[in-house]
Amino acid sequence: MWGSPRVSGSNSESLGNYLLGKLNIGGFETEKLQVQTSMRTKESQAKMLEQFGVSDLLIFSFPLYMDSIPASVIAALELMAKQRKTSVFPKTQRLLTILHNGLLEASQSSNALAICKRFAFEAGIDWAGGLSLGGGEAIGGKSLEDAGFLWRNVRKALDLVAKDLLEGKAVSGQAVNLMAKPFAPAWLYVFLANRTWKKRAKAYGTQDKLCDQPY
Amino acid sequence: MKAVVLNGARSGDEKVDEVSDAISSALGSLEQVSVFKLREIFIADCSSCFGCYLKTPGTCVINDATNGISKKLAKADLKVFLTPIVFGGYSSELKKAVDRQLGVLLPFCNKIQGEVHFLNRYERNGNLVGIGVLPKPDAESESIFKTLIDRNAITLHAPVHSTGFIYVEDNSSKIQDKIRNILAGVGFKN
């Protein structure tokens, strides 16, 4: 389940797709759904809850929004948790969460992972682990296989995660640490990020207005 | 002095509405108190388009109630995030408004308190108060919520911040006392 509002080409989906590919090879039957689309109507919500209920393994892949998970994802989790209180779910389920953020440090997502873990606890789902990735915006929505050398640690981490999940284990510390490793030192990240925004602004003619104070 | 209260009560969260009224009362001496009962306001999800950075710097490209709320927040000396605590964090109602506040930040980043953060768009930002409502004391949820407010205070460049908790069992007198103490944490005295 990916929680980016981008219906296609999102980094959340890129990360999720890579992992699902590995799980498919290992014999898992997988399905994908996008949270915002699923939350649009009562019918699509019901379908999402139905898929949620029959799955052995849930994988959430979200971007960090304002130090937490996006509002529509919270709304989906609120629905799921409510359903779990009113229905019987004999199936044992596991939840893995992957959070990426547009800033450098993966640790900035730690508290958001704690929110997801708390959701798992309240919904009666086993916590398979959580991974944080910093600088995820730089994946650019590409498939991880095509994303280049810069993301080798992320691919290695997800390979380890797939192995752990296929063996029924929780995610290892090694995978968590690999995923969290910054792909650049802070000074370089800041330099490149700031330069990129100025470059992108030229397409809109706003390069001299980026610091405007409309209020 | 101006304050904004974002009330993240969902349908059925009567206690949160009761706390919202108590906060309005406690802030009664201020020049302006704007209370937004978010469940009654349509706010679209943030689409992660970065239009507030690139297309219309400082304002959201989606034309709904958010820009009005953002304007009040930008001028507020005090911002109160009031919410039922959901998995340790904000309700979906509060979060939908908070998610759309990216425009108060600049796209440019730098190291702040040892981490990379987006820089402040405005010279001054209001203090931040987080008030979480819970059925009963819950150490884990409260710890997660407090950390969230701590982190939002850094992200939103709040000079001072304070966090507090109100339980469903708290009567009106206890609620008023707690609110007074929480607001005192950001230097507000009625």
- Give the helix tally of chain B: 6
Largest sheet of chain A: 3 strands, parallel
Poorly predicted ranges of chain B: none
Q: Provide the helix percentage of chain B.
A: 25-40%
CATH class term of chain B: Alpha Beta
Radius of gyration of chain A: 18 Å
What is the radius of gyration of chain B? 16 Å
Count of distinct structural domains of chain A: 2
Low-confidence stretches of chain A: none
Number of domains of chain B: 1
Q: Please indicate the percent range of residues of chain B in DSSP E strands (runs of 2 or more).
A: 25-35%
Fourth-tier CATH superfamily name of the largest domain in chain A: Flavodoxin domain
| Structural class computed from helices and strand pairing of chain B | alpha/beta
CATH topology call of the largest domain in chain A: Rossmann fold
Number of strands of chain A: 3
Describe the structure.
The complex is a heterodimer of chains A (215) and B (190). Chain A is mainly alpha-helical and 215 residues long. Chain A folds into two domains: 11-183, Rossmann fold, CATH 3.40.50.360; 185-215. Helices cover 47% and strands 11% of the residues of chain A. Chain A contains eight helices and three strands, in the order H-H-H-E-H-E-H-E-H-H-H. Chain A has helices at residues 11-25, 35-38, 42-54, 71-86, 110-123, 152-166, 173-180, 186-202; strands spanning 57-63, 94-101, 126-134. A three-stranded parallel β-sheet of chain A has the order 1-2-3, with helices on both faces. In chain A, helix 1 crosses helix 6 and helix 6 packs antiparallel against helix 7 (173-180). Chain A is globular, with a radius of gyration of 18 Å. The N and C termini of chain A lie far apart (37 Å). With 190 residues, chain B is α/β, with parallel strands linked by helices. Chain B has one domain (2-184): Rossmann fold. Chain B has helices at residues 14-26, 51-54, 66-75, 92-99, 139-155, 172-184; strands at 2-7, 32-37, 78-84, 105-112, 115-120, 127-134, 161-167. In chain B, the strands form two sheets. A five-stranded parallel β-sheet of chain B has the order 2-1-3-6-7, sandwiched between helices. A two-stranded antiparallel ribbon of chain B has the order 4-5. Chain B is globular, with a radius of gyration of 16 Å. Classes of the chains: A mainly alpha (215), B alpha/beta (190). Chains A and B meet through helix 4, helix 5 and helix 8 of A and helix 3, helix 4, strand 4, strand 5 and helix 5 of B.
